[in-house]
Amino acid sequence: MKSSTVMVILVLQAVLVMGIFAAVAKENAVGENKGNRETNGGKLKCCSNCNFSFSGLYTCDDVVKKCDPVCKSCAVVKTHPVKMFKCTDTFLGMCGPPCKH
């Protein structure tokens, strides 16, 4: 009887801690994005360098000649010899397929 009670308490504590970590990770993922503080509900056509966070949000760190039309906040990351961009949006869900170069 005691071991099952202890097990239930440990499971409830684990669920509580995971919920707290998820909330903190979501706040940090959205808060780090200086260009766009909202989550972009769209989906990129492709992304080869996808970074997931614990909360299920992701960013695409691909450096491209032109941002995807879905991207709301496109930042210049390189100017010489060719101007290159990176989408600074935070997306919810899965990354698109890898880009074909």
UniProtKB/TrEMBL annotation:
* Keywords for the protein's UniProt record, in alphabetical order: Disulfide bond, Protease inhibitor, Serine protease inhibitor, Signal
Judging by the UniProt lineage, the source's domain of life is Eukaryota
Does the entry feature the keyword Nucleotide-binding, yes or no? no
* GO cellular-component term (any): extracellular region
| Pfam families the record matches | Bowman-Birk_leg
Molecular function terms from GO: serine-type endopeptidase inhibitor activity
Supply the name of the protein: Bowman-Birk serine protease inhibitors family domain-containing protein
Q: Which family would the database say this protein is a member of?
A: Belongs to the Bowman-Birk serine protease inhibitor family.
Matching entries from InterPro entries are given as:
Bowman-Birk_prot_inh (IPR035995), Prot_inh_BBI (IPR000877), WIP1 (IPR044167)
Q: Where is the Bowman-Birk serine protease inhibitors family domain?
A: 60-74
Q: Where is the signal peptide?
A: 1-22
* UniProt keyword annotation of Disulfide bond present: yes
User: What PANTHER family does the database record attribute to this sequence?
Assistant: BOWMAN-BIRK TYPE WOUND-INDUCED PROTEINASE INHIBITOR WIP1 (PTHR37378:SF2), BOWMAN_BIRK DOMAIN-CONTAINING PROTEIN-RELATED (PTHR37378)
